[in-house]
Amino acid sequence: GEDVEQSLFLSVREGDSSVINCTYTDSSSTYLYWYKQEPGAGLQLLTYIFSNMDMKQDQRLTVLLNKKDKHLSLRIADTQTGDSAIYFCAETFSGGYNKLIFGAGTRLAVHP
Amino acid sequence: NAGVTQTPKFQVLKTGQSMTLQCAQDMNHNSMYWYRQDPGMGLRLIYYSASEGTTDKGEVPNGYNVSRLNKREFSLRLESAAPSQTSVYFCASKEGTGGYGYTFGSGTRLTVV
To answer: Which pLDDT tens digit goes with each residue over B45-67?
Structure first.
């Protein structure tokens, strides 16, 4: 079945790196995503990775995909207070009309 | 601005009342989706419409109905609201059958008392 799991909370100091982890169960995933949700707002696509890639870098963001372990991570370098938000891992998979399956979200708190 | 527009942004209903949440997109996307977001549970799919004229159930369809009125609009109806339907509802759209490219609306916060 389809299941995406994330830890619920992460606290980091400003300027440090943040690593948010996600595990998924569906081996037929086609794309995996990271979304950001700021308080009271909708979801903003941060980055995505195709399932045949191992890594993707986009400025301060690095996505690592370990297909063998079905593990996805998002690293935010030089974390800033503006990065404080909930981060959702999500996947789509073949045959599912491209429905997004979300994890519960990781709340990232950045403190001085 | 191009995107997904949801109305209303906030709503309070009494148990048993009905209402329709509206969603419209101006990007000529084929697929549209309704999700609900509850604390600690992420977003769960209620219904989706792969193309104009088709709708299908998602993970949590009970208590809801949908209408894909045309390519632009996809509405979600609560016929008899219950407190368990208190949630934040998000509409999303996507262009085709490829993977990425979802656009989300800003959400409707619904409280049922």
So the answer is: 999 998 888 999 998 999 999 99
